TrEMBL record:
Gene: ftsA_1
SHS2 domain boundaries: 18-238
Signal peptide annotation: none
This protein's UniProt keywords: Cell cycle, Cell division
Gene3D superfamilies: 3.30.420.40
GO terms under biological process: cell division
Protein name: Cell division protein FtsA
Organism annotation: candidate division WS6 bacterium OLB20
Any Pfam family hit: FtsA
Amino acid sequence: MLPFFRSKKQNTTQDDVFLALDIGTEFIKAAIFSVDFSDLTITVRGYSKVRQHSSAMQGAMIVNLEQVISACDRAIGEALHHADRVANKGRGQDEEPVSTPIPTRTIMGIAGELVQGITIMADYTREDPDSKIDEEEMNEVIAHVKEQAFADAVEDIAEDIGVPVAALQELNSKINATYIDGVKVDNPLGFTGTEVTYRVFSTFAPSLHVNSLKEIAASLGLEVLSIEVQPYVISRAIKGSRSKDFSAVIIDVGGGTTDVAVVDQGGIIGTKMFAFGGRVFSRRIQKDLDLELHEAEQMKIDYSDGKLPKEQELRVRDALKKDITIWAEGIELSLEELDDLERYPTQFYLCGGGSALPEIREVLMEHPWLQVLPFRKYPKTSMLFPGQLEDIIDATDSIIDPADVTPLALARMILELV
C-alpha cells in the first residue's frame, strides 16, 4: 500500500525538508535534504539507492509506471530511515529520538535522448544604463527570447527527435550567463550598464515523459517544485563552474543513456543525450558469458571494483571491447552537434554509475580527439565526485561515489529556484 515512506510516525523536528529524486534506468536515488537560506547551503540528511525492475525503464523513459512508483516509494522510505539513523547517531539512551520530517516537495531529474537543451543568445541595449537590473527586466528578456526564437527552435528539436511539435513541452528557460558591457557577472540583479548579453538555456521534452514524472509525484503525495535536465544541474553544481575560467565537458554515464553537457567560460552551451549506457555493457556480458541479466550486472560491478578472478576479468574485458568504441563515437557525435564553439573544452568530467568501468576512461583518453574535432590540445579526463559539488554539506558522510553526483546536484537546484 502506497506510500511506504508515509508509514513513518510523525514525531518530527521543526526543520523543513525536501526531496531530490533521480529516476534512473538501473536505480532510483533519493536524497532527503534541508536548506539554510541564510548562507545558501543545503544539507543532505538521508540518502538511498534502490534497484529498478529490469523492465521498468527503457533508455531513461518510463515504460512501467507502477513498477517505478513502487521503487520510488521504497527509495524515499529508505532515505528517511537513513536520515533518522544519522540524526540519532551519538544520542544517549535517555534522550528522546528525533524523527526526520516527511518531505512533501520534490525536485525531479529528467534525462533521455528525447530531452533536448538549447542555448539562445540575447543582446540588447538598455534605455536607462544607470538603473539597476531587476527581476522584471530579466523576465522580460526571457519572454522576448521565447517570442522571437522558440517557434523555430521547437520545430528543429521536434524534427531532430522525431516527434510532433505539439508533443513537446518546455521544461524551463534560465539565464545561465550574463555579460554587462563585456564583463561576465554571476548574477545580473542590482547591476547597472548599457550593453547586456544574456545566454538563455531552454530545455524541452516530450509531454508523455514529463507527465509520467508528475504522475509518480502525485501518486506519492509530492508537490513538484521543478523538473530539471540532469546534465544541466550537474554543470551548475560543480565548484567554480559559473566562473569565466571554467570550461569543461561533463559526461554522465547512466544505465540507459549517456548525458553530455558542454560548459564554456562558465556558461552552458548545450546538452545532448544518447541511448547508450551501462545496460548495453551488461547485456554484452550477458550474451558473451551466457548469464542471466542480473548476474551480468553484478559481474560488471565486480569487474569495475577489481573483484573478479583473472580468467573472468579477461573474458569481461574482451566482451566490453566490442561496444566501447561505439560509445566513444556517441560522445564524439554529441559534441559535434554542439557546434557553437570554435574550440572545445579540454577537460572531461566523468560521473554516473557506468563511469566506473575502466574502459570508459581508457577510451576517452585514447580516442583521436585532435583529428575529429577542434580541440586546442588533447583533453584530460577526470572523475567527478560528490565532494566537488558546491554549497552541499553531506551530513551522512557516506555519499562519495561518482554514481551519486546527480541527486546531490538536483538538491542544489533549490538554491537557484529561490
